[in-house]
Design brief:
about 210 residues; mainly alpha; Arc Repressor Mutant, subunit A; Tetracycline Repressor, domain 2; 9 helices; disordered C terminus
Length: about 210
């Protein structure tokens, strides 16, 4: 009975936390992270500020949870792409870059005020960003090793190549840059960068003139 009550209480708490996150996201989108207060979020949830602090330590804690949710969704898609082992590694690399771009653009291009949250997280909670980069790194390592094992890639140093890919594709992963171009322009640039990268790592028999990588 105690276990059932504990699970029930946890479910209620989780539901309240999600309600708070949804309300905070709406506030951040409409008014910006900097101008939003805990009292306003509490009011939107129909609760007291004191009750809000029972679930989240402060506004940054709420923002950190929102950022983690976004990055988790993003990496879940990338992980699914890497596991599509029936596809060539070159195709999966292109799919990951475009998937990251589409997700980032969809989340942030129409919500410029949400970039205040990105700035806050990068300034105070780089551990969240570093965790995401670690997952991204491991996925690229797995992808390159697949390409090597399948005699598709000629890569001497996997770690160095992962760093190069990450650096070359970073602009398609950055929320703060999403207002610079339209999605169509970004997609064209992303495809060009992927083509250039693949020209450097595909084995010669797989990179003859005219071979399509998209």
């Amino acid at each position: 009975m105690l276990s059932m009550a504990t699970n029930s209480n946890k479910k209620i708490s989780d539901n309240i936390q999600q309600q708070i996150l949804d309300a905070a996201s709406e506030r951040f989108t409409q008014y910006g992270y900097n101008k939003t207060t805990m009292a306003e979020i509490a009011k939107d949830c129909g609760m007291s500020a004191a009750n809000l602090y029972r679930h989240f330590e402060n506004k940054l804690d709420i923002g950190a949870n929102l950022a983690c949710d976004c990055l988790t969704n993003k990496t879940t898609v990338a992980q699914a792409i890497v596991q599509q082992k029936q596809k060539p590694a070159s195709k999966r690399l292109q799919d990951i870059v475009l998937s990251n771009l589409n997700y980032t653009y969809g989340q942030w291009s129409d919500n410029p005020r949400m970039n205040e949250l990105v700035t806050a997280i990068c300034g105070a909670r780089m551990d969240i960003v570093d965790d995401y980069k670690g997952i991204e790194h491991d996925l690229l390592v797995e992808l390159l090793e697949d390409g090597i094992a399948n005699d598709e890639f000629a890569v001497d140093d996997v770690e160095d190549t992962v760093h190069a890919i990450t650096a070359a594709t970073s602009m398609f992963n950055s929320p703060l840059l999403m207002s610079i171009y339209s999605l169509e322009e970004f997609t064209s640039k992303a495809n060009s960068v992927v083509k250039l990268l693949l020209n450097g790592i595909l084995k010669k028999q797989n990179s003859k003139p005219g071979r399509k990588t998209s």
